[in-house]
Design goal:
This protein is of the alpha+beta class. It folds into 3 domains: 2-259, Alpha-Beta Plaits, CATH 3.30.70.2200; 268-357 and 404-427, OB fold (Dihydrolipoamide Acetyltransferase, E2P) (Beta Barrel), CATH 2.40.50; 361-400, no CATH class. The chain contains 8 helices and 26 strands. It has helices spanning 16-26, 89-103, 124-132, 137-140, 157-166, 193-202, 236-245, 321-326; strands at 2-6, 30-32, 36-39, 52-71, 74-83, 114-118, 148-151, 173-179, 206-207, 210-211, 216-217, 227-233, 253-259, 268-269, 280-287, 292-294, 298-305, 308-314, 333-339, 346-356, 361-364, 376-377, 384-385, 392-393, 397-400, 408-411. Strands 1, 2, 3, 4, 5, 6, 7, 8, 9, 12 and 13 form an 11-stranded mixed β-sheet that branches. A 5-stranded mixed β-barrel has the order 15-17-18-20-19. Strand 19 and strand 20 form a beta hairpin. Helix 3 crosses helix 5. The structure holds adenosine-5'-triphosphate. Residues 6-7, 9, 15-16, 40-41, 44, 46-52, 112, 130, 134-135, 156-157, 159-160 line the site of adenosine-5'-triphosphate (ATP).
Length: 428
């Protein structure tokens, strides 16, 4: 039986993934396969942080089992398959409501939790819509005809809850999340930097652990949530070893999720005229104006394709990535992987493929062919004259300038990386 939950947190507390932990640790249900942490459209304005929703397949576990977590020293297992014939959808929904009501940050105005319980999996069509576009709540109910569900307040959480169930993990990574005990959720937290670097270097299948250029521990959430740290990886069998290397404050539970993080599932190949607000796109284009740094340290430039023009930006938070962008010039052929918010309709760059660098030439003042002295301009478009021997020439000389960048695929640093963005290392 499938459970989906979303929209339980606020910017100052909670994390919907914690509810997967509570369900796995306290409800009398086995997890079939992995719990799922599903990131949806990253441009949705009403998201709290990373637009995450969760889903779990539950039942009476059968077949092979593997350990995927702990809750208060009790081991949590994932089963190969399961039997849900003895489970009652309505009964499970009532139990989930109690959990959501205990933990959701209801006093935050926009928090609108949604819970979905269904024996029948929801069409994958919904996932692709939810990760790539904006869904109207009214549209969701047609996907829930065979489900039991409950939506609080604006009921918006039903969108994420249903979409998380509808994800089919064809392209996927994993994340191991550790959780603090409730009395430590609002306090300072300690993670030993050296141990994170050691883990990053030792366990090669993990990614986005540490930003070396910006001295930033990326496994630690920016805000005070129940999560102490999260380790992302492509090989689930390495995550337990990675967890043991990291030294930190004590945590009372952890759980491994299957996720769509690092998959680029949000990106769609589009032309400029097709780009809509909240889209994430892959755009083949040409640099139309040289990049400029604007107040705030953002680097902005105009690009074109045969359907139109649009601004692209490397914002301040993308740090050293801006230096690559600043070196672009008019005529360079590029492919931008990025997304747009509603206003301003500017493409926020996540990755860039520099396909072909334009040949940039500058006018140079010629040397006199007779006496070898440097000539001087005889006026705008009037050629050059040698002050020494009076020689005149109409010939304009150009010099090719050395470009400071090379063609290739570049990405924003780990500190500015989006959850869904596929790291460049995965393309090799
Ligand atoms: P966190 O990452 O901390 O769990 P969050 O960033 O996931 O928080 P939520 O509080 O869950 O943010 O808010 C996101 C809201 O947007 C949810 O109600 C979810 O159902 C809704 N939502 C998600 N994707 C879409 C979409 N494509 N179209 C419309 N609404 C969406």
């Amino acid at each position: 039986m499938w459970i989906g939950i979303d929209d339980t947190d606020s910017s100052t507390g909670m994390c919907t993934t914690y509810l997967a932990m509570v369900i796995a640790g306290t409800m009398d249900l086995d997890l079939i396969k992995f719990p799922r942490l599903v990131r949806l459209n990253p441009n949705i304005p009403w998201k709290t942080r990373g637009n995450a929703a969760i889903s779990l397949n539950v039942g009476i576990g059968k077949g092979k089992k593997i350990k995927i977590g702990e809750f208060n020293s009790n081991e949590i297992y994932s089963y190969e398959y399961g039997d849900d014939s003895s489970l009652d959808e309505r009964d499970i929904l009532e139990k989930l409501k109690k959990i959501v009501e205990k933990y959701a940050v209801m006093d935050e105005e926009k928090t609108s939790p949604g819970i979905v319980v269904t024996r029948k999996k929801i069409s994958e069509k919904l996932y692709w819509k939810a990760v790539r576009s904006v869904i109207d709540l009214n549209e969701i109910f047609s996907y829930l005809e065979n489900a039991s569900y409950f939506g609080y307040k604006y009921k918006r959480g039903l969108i994420g809850a249903s979409s998380a169930i509808s994800w089919k993990p064809k392209r996927k990574t994993y994340e191991l999340l550790t959780y603090l005990p409730e009395d430590k959720w609002n306090g300072e937290r300690f993670i030993d930097k050296k141990s994170v670097i050691l883990m990053d270097k030792k366990i090669k299948t993990t990614f986005e652990n540490f930003d070396y250029n910006n001295d930033h521990i990326a496994i630690k959430p920016e805000t005070k949530t129940p999560v102490l740290f999260g380790i992302r990886g492509t090989n689930v069998n390495d995550l337990e070893m990675a967890r043991k290397i990291v030294k930190s404050d004590p945590y009372f539970s952890y759980l491994i999720f299957e996720t769509n993080q690092g998959t680029d599932d949000h990106l769609v190949k589009k032309k400029i005229s097709e780009i809509k607000p909240y889209d994430s796109v892959i755009l083949d284009c040409e640099v139309l104006e040289k990049p400029k740094t604007i107040p705030g340290g953002h680097v902005i430039f105009k690009v074109k394709d045969r359907t139109g023009e649009i601004f692209a930006a490397a914002y301040e938070k993308t740090k050293e990535f801006r230096e690559i962008i600043k070196n672009l010039d008019v005529g360079d052929e590029i492919k931008i992987f990025g997304s747009v918010k509603k206003y301003p309709k500017t493409l926020n760059i996540e990755k860039i493929l520099i396909k072909n660098l334009a040949e940039i030439k500058i006018k140079v003042i010629p040397i006199c062919p007779k006496c070898g002295k440097k000539m001087e301009s005889a006026g705008k478009n009037k050629g050059y004259r040698c002050r020494n021997c009076g020689t005149f020439t109409n010939e304009i000389k150009y010099e090719k300038i050395e470009r400071n960048i090379n063609p290739g695929l570049y990405q924003v640093p780990v500190i500015a990386r989006r959850h869904l963005s596929k790291p460049v290392e995965f393309f090799r």
